[in-house]
Amino acid sequence: MRGRVALVAGGTRGGGRGVAVELGAAGATVYVTGRSTRGGRSPLDRPETIEGTAERVTAAGGLGIPVRVDHAVPAEVRALTERIDAEHGGLDLLVNGVWGGDPSTDWAHPLWEQDLDTGLRMFRNAVETHVVTSRFAVPLLIARGRGLVVEVTDGNTARYRGSFFYDLAKSTVIRLAVAQAAELRPHGIAAVALTPGFLRSEAVLEHFGVTEQTWRTATDPHFAHSESPAYLGRAVVALATDPDVLARSGRALSTGELHREYGFTDADGTRPDFPAYWAEALEGEFGPLGDPL
């Protein structure tokens, strides 16, 4: 990835941070965007910042550039892409990873008992931000005549994800990849959706009362099959450096399948495969994951 330029939208924490740092380890210049900075936190009120991620990118071997952007505001995204264009004359990789919807997800109630404003706000944050970002960033890929768009989601099958607005958001993000793939193929640019398995984000580690160093002490048996954000990042690097990635365009992919094809490992040298674990241990209770979308 040395000499290539990436934009990781929503790179403050979790999967976005993992992707940005692994791109840095591969030598990329990475614009890290989000709303949480050392000067002020986003409404999620978490301590991770875009500056912290950018510093990790640089420490890993790349160049991290933090830019505060609210991806729901078109003017801010336009200004970001104009800056990238002025500084680098194009873009090689766009990772649409804006999410932040976990605190708003209602897992306990069906649609007709949920708060409508909360659900619609979550959907807009998870989907409209991706649309806005692609609207202004994709022309920079076209200027290069090559590249990749990665839409980060949860799940890559038709299985219902357990909450109406959550399911709607994550499924729609997959459709964003399908639509962009169709429109970008004539320009030689690929677009895919990509899902991690059971991701050990900062918030998930806190939920289980562990750290990335002590996560194996968690008592939840499913957590033993989780993966670090670096695993998602290494999947993105593998896709971005695959000269035949256009053959995958329009597909919804998972880290669990890609590690078998590309041979990458997680940060600890393991190769988590949550879809395989689901089929072995969870399908009897929750049903099959379903056919790919």
Automatic annotation (TrEMBL):
Coiled-coil zones: none
Recorded superkingdom: Bacteria
A Pfam family that the UniProt record links to this protein: adh_short
PANTHER family on file: DEHYDROGENASE/REDUCTASE SDR FAMILY MEMBER 1 (PTHR44147), DEHYDROGENASE_REDUCTASE SDR FAMILY MEMBER 1 (PTHR44147:SF2)
Name under which the protein is recorded: Short-chain dehydrogenase
